[in-house]
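Margin note from the TA: students keep mixing up input and output lines. Inputs are the sequences; the output is the structure of the whole complex. Example:
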Amino acid sequence: MSKAAKVTIQDIAHKAQVSQSTVSRVLSGNAPVAATKRTAVLAAIDELNYRPNIFAQSLASGQSLTIGVLTQNFGNPFYDGILVGILQTLEPTPYSPIFGDGRWQLAVEKRALRTLIDRQVDGLIVVGGLSPQEEILAYSRDVPLIVAAREIPDLADQCLFIDNKKAAYDATCYLIDMGHRHIAHVTAPMYYHGPINDIFQRYQGYIQALTEAGIEPDPQLVVEGDLSRQSGLMALQNLVASKRPFTAIFAANDQMAIGIRLGLYRRGLRVPEDVSLVGFDDEPTTAYLTPPLTTVRQPAIELGQTAAQAILDLINANQQPCDPFDTELIIRESVARRR
Amino acid sequence: MSKAAKVTIQDIAHKAQVSQSTVSRVLSGNAPVAATKRTAVLAAIDELNYRPNIFAQSLASGQSLTIGVLTQNFGNPFYDGILVGILQTLEPTPYSPIFGDGRWQLAVEKRALRTLIDRQVDGLIVVGGLSPQEEILAYSRDVPLIVAAREIPDLADQCLFIDNKKAAYDATCYLIDMGHRHIAHVTAPMYYHGPINDIFQRYQGYIQALTEAGIEPDPQLVVEGDLSRQSGLMALQNLVASKRPFTAIFAANDQMAIGIRLGLYRRGLRVPEDVSLVGFDDEPTTAYLTPPLTTVRQPAIELGQTAAQAILDLINANQQPCDPFDTELIIRESVARRR
DNA sequence: CTGTTAGCGCATTCAT
DNA sequence: ATGAATGCGCTAACAG
């Protein structure tokens, strides 16, 4: 580890003319110590630049003061937002987060999860992920666990998520209100996200909105991508190739919307004059597309903050009920009124 | 920590009818053990689902098997790319990374750095950051240290970075080659990035290219932003307000280029017909702008991989020389030929 | 090859 | 209020 000469609690006990235990006491603060000794200890600590050995602390106390965070894909704006929220919330606490990245690959995720557990985290925040419910459930018996951005029925109290169906419903309704009748939807295969059905819920919201508006959903207008930009580009090609007329597209996420946007551009189709476009996620760049994209804002940072708070509450055994998260439809220039 | 009944090395020693040390030996593998005992131990481990206590291990061995990574801004594509590279490289090793985020705020960075050190990391990778050189230098005496995406003169052997000046020079030359003479540049204040002068080096590359081409640099055509998208938008306004004619803009990063792009769009200026635009970073979305943006690719993932490898080498005391990183000009549709 | 022993640095009884 | 003693779970000499 560090090459620096390790100064231990003994050293400062010596220097401050007190016992080891006394030093430990001023450090933890949970036992009364005479003011004079306290200051002496503090002085010694300062002088010798003492830093307690975290491993010894944890070994002796049985607490690691770390929160494990299992995430997917560093670099995805939504997940990064969640991380930021977690970081912010944990900052003023004695707990610090350690991250593991599952990269949306079950095997990788499993290893990451294992690593976190092995590091004796005091709490675990699982953000998304592919792990089967039973596994998560099993972990939740061993360690305080919060699931963010994913719904696990048997663990409802500890799940924070967003009502994707309602959000998609609202987005589709907006297109309908603007006079659109032929609205395409770019989704992803149901199995794509494994146990996560966000995307499927968005599909359901889309269908519901159409149905309630008396519009017969047209299966030909629903195409699948894999949530990547590239797949949006290809989905658009498929859509155009199907020869079904449409005046608007609702994409299940912004990444695909961005790909679709480029596809339209290449075909000389203008947004929104020829085709209106709505995405989902409110990724930062969507506000800077030309024209800026209408999309659905998911409160990522808030979600992260709440998740962190929830895990702290859980550790301190005063579990709070979790409120559901509301989304917001961000209306920008990419939708035109028809007729 | 975990509520699970902790099974210790003793338990499995018992079950396998061997001594604690033998178990430790099969675990670490760095000492010969009789095949029969080994299998017995392995069986016991498996049966009792034993996991070594990492804190006890570290405390006893003096190794933490962790690499600290100080990063700035989760969510920034360039930095995230570096993280991904680090993750990938460390995955097959016994080391696992722990991250700290400085958020480009000196105070936050200091705390994050401190936390990492306190966690007894065996090595430290500093990605960017504001900490003064002396501080980094001081840390480097205590712990194997690699600096990525930043140049620290007194620590040259342990720094991995990119030749920003040359990259900017190349980008500007490209615009000149395409016939542009009035090329604006959007940069950031020299002090903005604190000790990091990436941005300033890009400015220098720009100036050099102009000068070599016999074009008198026009100070009026250089405006400052703060590297954010929003600031790109404002920079463009300033540029237009200055009434100086220009046919091309070279932005010091893609974020600002994206803002500039939107500003041009709002003013009805087409890219590249009216104004050509070049960015820097090759952020993923730039390929999906309409039209796609010409930019400079920084090999973020490779940089992360190399950094991780370098720190491993450093820990094992077989330091390797670090090659410089080459950038690549990604030419896309946002530049038009003039005259 | 293997068991025994002695700490690693600290928190936490238990006395005082 | 404080010092002494014990042990957290494991690694690393040290003997055999």
